């Protein structure tokens, strides 16, 4: 029997009980409430005098955060919302003078502190499940470290190697010759080590595939987003160097090298034998022609079409990609016509 509206109990929105996660878009629950001072002690930075005992139950966007929440203030555009909010604030030092004292956690690397807080929540959520689910297909001859995490539906073929602490997400496929380094992540549905796009013509003019036997080497701490494809090299491996990060839908052609610490945004594509230097930044949907070299620390604007070498540290955009300032001037001239 349903209670009548008159007798039905209503939930007190200010109840001391922890709210449901995601309630009204309010953010992410901590594993257990912590004081603001404890967070600063764990991750660095300083809290305003007298607010170290503020209890934090969750991390929330600044627009919806309220009492008991921690909201990051990381950009000037959110100062107005911060002034209206009753939440505790994780604040970049440059923005701290704009916020009255009394609820600030000021951190010299506030983005990093937020990452550490969220990492603790993520680790607490992980289920103590078996490392290799039953629905995974691992062929005899594949070498999977016992500490690796393999998602349901993943396929690991003979000759592939998965290192300690690596994570292979659901439905990813590792071909023979794919080597996955320590703590690397291969995103859901990604294909690593399929033979690259190598063809030649026979004397009769028929297209003939060139076997791609070099494999792929994914080094330590690389993260490959979902639905990426990294082709096997011809004679040696296609390489994603240590700490590089690839967003979703990135394609890396055979024999390419993506440098250490590079960041590649979604839908970028690299033709065969491209060399990307360490620390390069590549915008979404940028395309790089075969055998092109991108220097260390270079930046490619989104949708750039790169058909020639880019010097270290250069910033380019457009098609064909040129110095970014030159490209913007050319666009401005066209728009004035």
List keywords for this structure.
337 residues, alpha/beta, Udp-n-acetylmuramoylalanyl-d-glutamate--2,6- Diaminopimelate Ligase, Chain: A, domain 1, UDP N-Acetylglucosamine Acyltransferase, domain 1, ten-stranded mixed β-sheet, nine-stranded parallel β-sheet, 13% helix, 28% strand, disordered N terminus
Distance between the terminal alpha carbons, to the nearest Å? 73 Å
The biggest sheet amounts to: 10 strands, mixed
- The CATH architecture of the largest domain can be named as 3 Solenoid
CATH class of the largest domain: Mainly Beta
| Shape summary | flat
Q: What topology, given as strand order, has the largest sheet?
A: 9-12-15-20-23-26-29-32-34-35
Radius of gyration (CA) equals 25 Å
Domains, number: 2
The average pLDDT score comes to 90
Count of helical stretches: 4
Indicate the CATH topology of the largest domain.
UDP N-Acetylglucosamine Acyltransferase, domain 1
The assigned structural class equals alpha/beta
Strand content range: 25-35%
Tally the beta strands.
35
Helix content percent band: 10-25%
Low confidence ranges = 1-24
């Amino acid at each position: 029997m349903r209670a009548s509206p008159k007798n039905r109990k209503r939930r007190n929105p200010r109840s001391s009980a922890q709210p449901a996660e995601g309630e009204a878009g309010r953010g992410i629950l901590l594993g257990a409430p912590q004081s603001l001072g404890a967070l600063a002690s764990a991750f660095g930075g300083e809290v305003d005098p007298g607010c170290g005992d503020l209890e934090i139950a969750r991390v929330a966007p600044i627009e919806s955060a309220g009492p008991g929440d921690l909201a990051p203030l990381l950009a000037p555009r959110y100062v107005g919302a911060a002034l209206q909010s009753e939440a505790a604030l994780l604040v970049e030092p440059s923005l701290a003078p704009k916020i009255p004292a009394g609820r600030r956690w000021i951190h010299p690397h506030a983005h990093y502190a937020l990452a550490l807080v969220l990492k603790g929540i993520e680790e607490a959520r992980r289920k103590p499940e078996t490392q290799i689910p039953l629905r995974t297909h691992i062929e005899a001859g594949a070498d999977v470290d016992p500490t690796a995490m393999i998602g349901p539906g993943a396929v690991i073929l003979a000759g592939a190697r998965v290192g300690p602490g690596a994570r292979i997400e659901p439905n990813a496929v590792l071909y023979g010759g794919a080597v996955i380094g320590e703590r690397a992540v291969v995103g859901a549905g990604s294909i690593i080590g399929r033979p690259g796009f190598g063809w030649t013509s026979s004397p009769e003019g028929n297209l003939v595939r060139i076997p791609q036997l070099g494999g792929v080497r994914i080094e330590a701490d690389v993260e490959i987003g979902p639905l990426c494809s990294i082709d096997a090299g011809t004679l040696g491996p296609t390489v994603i160097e240590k700490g590089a990060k690839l967003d979703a839908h990135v394609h890396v052609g055979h024999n390419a090298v993506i440098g250490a610490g590079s960041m590649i945004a979604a839908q970028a594509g690299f033709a065969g034998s491209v060399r990307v230097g360490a620390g390069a930044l590549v915008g979404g949907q940028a395309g790089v022609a075969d055998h092109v070299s991108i220097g260390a620390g270079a930046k490619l604007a989104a949708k750039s079409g790169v058909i020639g070498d880019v010097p270290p540290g250069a910033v380019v955009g457009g098609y064909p990609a040129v110095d970014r300032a030159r490209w913007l001037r050319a666009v401005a001239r066209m728009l004035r016509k």
